[in-house]
């Protein structure tokens, strides 16, 4: 786990990079993923094609994507670090700062907006005591607005993702029943809660 802390003030990725983390240390931590990376390289005609998957593996190990790990990923994919960084900047699925244990995404696109997304965001901001884009001081919840969760036909939606960075003892020991669930009566309808566990095994 990285040495940086999660706090609402640390929203700029440049301010939350783990001190002392080197490319060599990233390579050591990612050594257990070498068989997966080798298989990805075997399947694709160019090494550059594996960049997205390698970044996902990095995020699975660290819980987010530190900039030093972006450099390491660029080395694996044999592309420029600037290209790898632009990929992380473009795709919102890559977390550039450490988030809380539970990552709450609320869709704010037109379909969900018409169904009361702003009311839900205001409700959660009040209950959690943070604004969108921030993390609770205890590091438990992060709240983020997103553009689409691809469920427009049943708008509106939010998702709650459990972020697990401790790889050991996670397999088979986590269930939805153990995750905190908000009481239905407190959530504006017709919002539904998707519980997805990001368990990195």
Task: Annotate the secondary structure layout.
Blueprint: H1 23-29, H2 34-43, H3 51-62, H4 67-76, H5 81-90, E1 102-107, H6 110-114, H7 117-128, E2 141-146, E3 157-163, E4 192-198
Parallel strand pairs: 1-2, 3-4
Antiparallel strand pairs: 1-3
Helix pairs in contact: 1-4, 3-4, 4-5
Please characterize this protein's 3D structure.
It is built from 7 helices and 4 strands, in the order H-H-H-H-H-E-H-H-E-E-E. With 201 residues, the protein is an alpha/beta fold. The chain has 2 domains: 78 residues, Orthogonal Bundle (Arc Repressor Mutant, subunit A), CATH 1.10.10; 97 residues, Glutaredoxin. It has a 4-stranded mixed β-sheet, with helices on one face.
How would you describe the oligomerization state of the chains in this entry? single chain
In CATH, the topology of the largest domain is named Glutaredoxin
Helical stretch count? 7
CA-CA gap between termini: 15 Å
List unreliable stretches of 5+ residues. Answer: 1-10, 165-201
* Top-tier CATH class of the largest domain: Alpha Beta
Run of helices and strands = HHHHHEHHEEE
Strand portion, in percent?
Answer: 5-15%
Number of strands: 4
Largest sheet: 4 strands, mixed
**Strand order, biggest sheet?**
2-1-3-4
- Secondary structure: helix percent: 25-40%
Mean pLDDT: 75
- Identify the overall geometry: globular
User: What count of structural domains?
Assistant: 2
> Cα-atom Rg, whole angstroms?
18 Å
CATH architecture of the largest domain: 3-Layer(aba) Sandwich
**Secondary structure category:** alpha/beta
